[in-house]
Amino acid sequence: MTADLRPPRVGCVVPNGGDLLLREPIAAVVDAVGEGGATGLWFADHLVVAEHASSVHPYSPSADDQVDRIRTVTTPWFEALTCCAAAAAISGPLWVGTAVLVLPQRRPIEVAKMAATIDRLTDGRFVLGLGAGWLREEFDALGYDFASRTDRLESGVATLRDAWTGTLTLGAGQRVHLHPAPVTRIPVLLGGNAPAALRRAADLGDGWLGIAMSWGPYLDALDEQLETLARLTKDRPGTPFTRTVRIVQHDRTDRDELLGMVEAIATRDVDEIVVEPPWTTPAHTATVLQEITDQIGAR
Which residue numbers delimit the Luciferase-like domain (predicted)? Predict the structure, then answer.
């Protein structure tokens, strides 16, 4: 940790794909995150699991090494915004957010309404992480065009911003009203590690939500990404641009690797490190999170 950098916050992924939220009460999960010293809970987004899907996650080590939670059709996936609302109701000061919500496979006005509602009910403790998506079969099943997803992500962000003013003009010139408006500006973080994604985050977002992968030269890649973002946001007006990094491990049970990655990333100019510790029991998760926050002196 360099002297001029404060330690980043630590956020925690709650795996809403899998059996955790079936076997543990949401209150116990939220308590574990708070007891571990993390400042926020993050939920992923999959609406359906398509049979015989062949799409390869862009950050997977190989086509044969996909995440079982996405490939197994019987995996329960709890809806992300609903999880945020449920967790926020009992999370006290903790933030809740999506990492990331696939906006191009949802209607932006409906997302704007739900996000504003969560933001109001949490007194401004909601962060909306957005991405373009990668699972073609999921788009097909939901009836959304896959090829145009990045264009629709960008136009969707603009729709969200307009809707959150309380008044929105639709394509036919009809004005509609969406109240309540958010408490303040809802932070929109845009995900993705590619150069185009970094430009999109700098142009449209309040911050970036990147991924550091344990199976690659993640520090070299992160340094390059942060340098790019610094250049793209150098003369940016308005609210500060935040940098959030989510750690994705090949083996989520490797505690030592997780601690090492957190320590290394914390020396960079990032605002938050999002981790997914082992969720064997909430008590064990709280212990691992406490080790992480103690190790870097997270605020």
Answer: 45-258
